[in-house]
Amino acid sequence: MTEVGLDAPSEEGPLAIICAGGSLPFAVADLVERRGRRAVLFALRGWVDPNRIASYRHHWIAIGQLGRFRRLARQEGCRELVFIGSFIRPTLRQIRLDLDTLRVLPKVIASFRGGDDHLLKGVAKIVEDYGFRFIGPHEVAPEILVPEGALGHGHPSERDQTDIAHGLALLQATGGFDVGQAVIVAGKHVLAVEAAEGTDSMLERIAVLRRHGRISLRDKVGVLVKAPKQGQDRRFDLPSIGPQTIDGVARAGLAGVAAVAGGTIIAEPDRVAQAADRARLFVVGVPALSGDRL
Fold first, then answer.
1. In which region does residue 212 sit, left (phi positive, over 0), alpha (psi from -120 to 50) or beta (all else)?
2. What architecture does CATH give domain 15-140?
3. What residue ranges do the domains of the chain occupy?
4. Closest CA to 69 of 79, 59, 56
5. What pLDDT score was predicted for residue 2?
6. Which of 9, 17, 96, 277 has its CA 20 to 30 A from that of 210?
7. What is the CATH number of domain 145-286?
8. How far is 288 from 261, CA to CA, in rounded Å?
C-alpha cells in the first residue's frame, strides 16, 4: 500500500473505488480528491497496472475476497463505494473464495445466473448487506459523462443521423434482454450488435470483415452507437468510450461515434476529441430516446 498526502476527509467520509482496468478509476479518483474528498482505491489483481496505481492510496484485492475488502474498507472509514473500469465477466473458477464469500456462496452462484446487470446487482446486494452503499461514479464525478453535442470538429451528416436514430431504436428494443450496449449501423443496415466480446472486439470484427470483402461499403460510412440498457442499474457498467474506441472506429472504416449524453462515460475526453479530429471522425453526445430513463 502506498500513501500520498491528502486533505482532511470530507463530511461524506472517504470514497472506496473498486478498480478494474483502464484509466477511468484514476480519473474518478482525481476528480473526487479535487473536490476535497479522500479516495481509497481497491485494485483488482490482474486488472490494474501496478505502476499506474502506485501514487494513490490503495489496497490490492482479488475477485471474491469479500472479507479482505470489508475489513480494509472499514479500517479506512469508507462507507460509500464506486465500481469502475474495464472488466470481463469472471467465471466461478476465477473467484478466490475467502471465508466471508463462502458464507454467501449460494447468493454468489445465484447472481451468476443471468446477464451482467443481474450479476452486478446481485454482488452489490451482498456487499451492501455489510453496511456499505454503492453509488454511481457519475454521482461523485459528473465530468466523466459524455455531454450533449459534438466533441471535436466533426459532425454527423444527415445519413449518419439516420443511422444513429436506427441504432438507438435497436438498443432500446434489446436492452431488456441484458445484452450489449453498442451497435454498428450503416445505411440503416445493422452490421454488428455488441455481445460478450465487448466494443473493441466488435469493431475489430467489422475491420476484418471489411478487409475480407464481406462488407462492401466505402470508407467513412457507418456509425458506432452506444447507449445504456433500458432499465439498467446506472451505478454499474454504463457504456463508455475512450481514445481506444476512436482507434477501433477508424480501423473499422466508420464515420464516427454517437453516445447517449449523460448516460455514457468518457475516458480522457480531450484525447478522444483530438484522436477523432486526426482521423476525421465525429464524436457526438445525443439525447436518449423518449421513454429511456437517465
1. alpha
2. 3-Layer(aba) Sandwich (3.40)
3. 15-140, 145-286
4. 59
5. 38
6. 277
7. 3.40.140.80
8. 7
